[in-house]
Amino acid sequence: MMKENVKKVLLAYSGGLDTSVTIAWLKENYNNCEVIGMTANIGQIEDFDFIHKKALNCGASKLYVEDLREEFITDFIYPSLRAGAKYEGSYLLGTAFARPLIAKKMVEIAHKEGCDAIAHGCTGKGNDQVRFELGIREFDPSITIIAPWREWDILSRDQEFDYAEAHNIPLPITRETNYSKDENLWHLSHEGLDLENPSNQPKYEEILELGVSPKQAPDKSKKVTIRFEKGNPVAIDGEELSPIDIIAKLNKLGGENGIGILDLVENRLVGMKSRGVYETPGGTILYHAHEKLEQLTLDRDTQHYKQNLALKYGDLVYNGLWFSPLRQAMQAFVDYTQKTVTGEVTLELYKGNIIDAGITSPFSLYNEELATFDEDNIYNQNDAEGFINLFGLPQTARVLAKHKNK
User: Which residues form the Arginosuccinate synthase C-terminal domain (predicted)?
Assistant: First the structure.
């Protein structure tokens, strides 16, 4: 679509530096177009009334504030948890699986408002531009997408501040404290400034917001018991809670005990490596507990195959392919495996460590009589000789052939 045809734009608005500058830039460069903002409440700690006023002060005609917390948990977080999905074995996908949900809601509002285009404040170096745009195209492949970072002459955060100051755009941050952050009820990420040099140790005492470092955690452990039903957490310490309350409570417990701090150099989809610090206290506890319960309730082949699948699942989510047929097909497999992932897991939290303290399940595959070192009436140890002979038959044939041909 030509610039002159853009009359109304829906902007993903966070209230931060990028999107606040974007409102003024869109109006300046797209024929003084009407800009409507949408802010997704996915659990970040924000004053949404302040964000609403700020969007209007920056030039937006209106701002939608959408409470997506419940949908975020049940339709994005929990499916990923059931899959055991992590990117590169450690990142719990907090930013990655939030973007498809926001994109879906943006298309819905853009259609409602009759918008000609959707805009976002993602940089041309990051992953989120891909996640947003693939999500938008899933629901409207023809709508125009505007990514100012790929168009404007602003080349750095400092230049963004210059632009904001020149256009009297109010900002709640300063140049000196401008870590790039992403927060929702699952995690908080920190990037930029001193973290851009991987040789610098993170200043945990200064940057952590969801909890404390293990050094500052109490010198006393805290036990917690989580009950799962079909792979989803439903209760903590015997109290049934809503999904929002479960994550909030575990975030508090984990944060207080220094759990879930990750310093990661990751491979971005666009090809470069980036370094960030992630806080995921409750999520780290849930992933650990879920994995322990699966150890008890899944048969060997299913458990091993699912572990391999989790890596690919994590890649798909990280790369913005949440709505892909492959991710959805994987989810069907995952959810079938979760039929027996019901039970309770007790963990002990201590100075950044998660210590296993017991698992129970009505679907436990652990048979104490089979596994015991004491005498039993089930397992005949003499049977192992024939098993080893048959299991090792290909090896025997290979070695005999090797010696025969010497």
Answer: 179-395
